[in-house]
Design goal:
There is one protein chain. By secondary structure, the chain is an alpha/beta fold. The chain has a single domain, classed as 3-Layer(aba) Sandwich (Rossmann fold). It has a 5-stranded parallel sheet with strand order 3-2-1-4-5, with helices on both faces. The longest helix is centred in the middle third of the chain and has 18 residues. It contains 7 helices and 5 strands. α3 links the parallel β2 and β3. It binds 4'-phosphopantetheine.
């Protein structure tokens, strides 16, 4: 093994997966905390052709890249298919997820166990900052669509994109 390879194997990588339609302050909190724990953090945006979002995948990627620009070890990519295949292709041994409340736990536990059984990838849960424990992209979209103030729940670039998109419809 060359010196370069042994250094390479020591890079600690993790992935923060999701739909991110759009990214919220809750997501950003988890991504920024993961970026302090790992050498490289991939933000992986799931492509779901059967579900049309408010933003298309390219728009979501663009927004995430803008709001994570300050984290030099964060990379933003899309994927379709199984998350464990995304992990395998990039040598990522860990999935990092935020847990907002007990209600998140059942499904997250199922996915963590399935992913571990499929490929050995581990899932690590970070408790969400209580400020964002009620927050989801769906609720942000609903509140914004009815003219409610979501400026404290999403980064300014996302707020601007939301206002522009909802005004168009
Ligand atoms: O933001 P979301 O919609 O809660 O994210 C869900 C996501 C993308 C993490 C999950 O649906 C996923 O991992 N999808 C990829 C397909 C896959 O691997 N399915 C098996 C999960 S056990």
């Amino acid at each position: 093994m060359t010196g370069l390879e042994s250094e390479e194997t020591q890079v600690r990588r993790a992935v923060c997966p999701g739909s991110f339609d759009p990214i919220t302050n809750g997501h950003l909190d988890i991504i920024s905390r993961a970026s302090r724990l790992y050498d490289e953090v991939y933000v992986a945006v799931m492509i779901n052709k059967s579900k049309k979002g408010l933003f298309d995948v390219e728009e979501r990627l663009d927004l995430i890249r803008q709001v994570t620009a300050e984290y030099s070890n964060v990379r933003v990519e899309s994927f379709h298919g199984l998350l464990v295949d995304f992990c395998k292709q990039r040598d990522i041994p860990a999935i990092v997820k935020g847990l907002r409340a007990v209600s998140d736990f059942d499904y997250e536990l199922q996915m963590a166990q399935m992913n571990n059984g499929l490929s050995g990838v581990e899932t690590l849960f970070i408790p969400t900052n209580p400020t964002y424990s009620f927050l989801s992209s769906s609720l942000v979209k609903e509140v914004a669509a009815w003219g409610g103030d979501v400026s404290h729940l999403v980064p300014p670039q996302v707020l601007e994109a939301l206002v522009r998109r909802l005004r168009k419809d």
